[in-house]
Amino acid sequence: MAGPETRPNAETRDAEREEAAARHDADRAPTKEEEDAAERNTPDPETAEHYEEMAERGANQKGEGRIS
């Protein structure tokens, strides 16, 4: 159950702005095993097709949800 609705104060907004501007990097480089596993990975053609379809729908969307 959600609590009562609240409004962020200036301190919260400042902290969120600072976090959004902070540099976000990976905590470490991938290991050799992780790199090898990624190279062996093959994308699912159905997923790629679905992605393209959704991108096209988003590009043609009117109003909310539109991809610019």
What does this structure look like?
With 68 residues, this protein is an all-alpha fold. 53% of the residues lie in helices and 0% in strands. The two termini are 36 Å apart. The model has no long low-confidence stretch (mean pLDDT 88).
Quick description:
This protein is mainly alpha-helical and 68 residues long.
Mean pLDDT: 88
* Main beta-sheet annotation: none
Class of secondary structure makeup: mainly alpha
Shape: flat
Tell how many strands the DSSP assignment holds: 0
Radius of gyration: 20 Å
Strand fraction equals: under 5%
Order of helices and strands: HHH
Helix content bin: 40-55%
* N-to-C span: 36 Å
Question: Counting H and I runs of at least 4 residues, what is the number of helices?
Answer: 3
Identify low-pLDDT runs: none
Characteristic terms for this protein:
68 residues, mainly alpha, 3 helices, 0% strand
List the helices and strands and how they pair.
Layout: H1 10-21, H2 32-40, H3 45-59
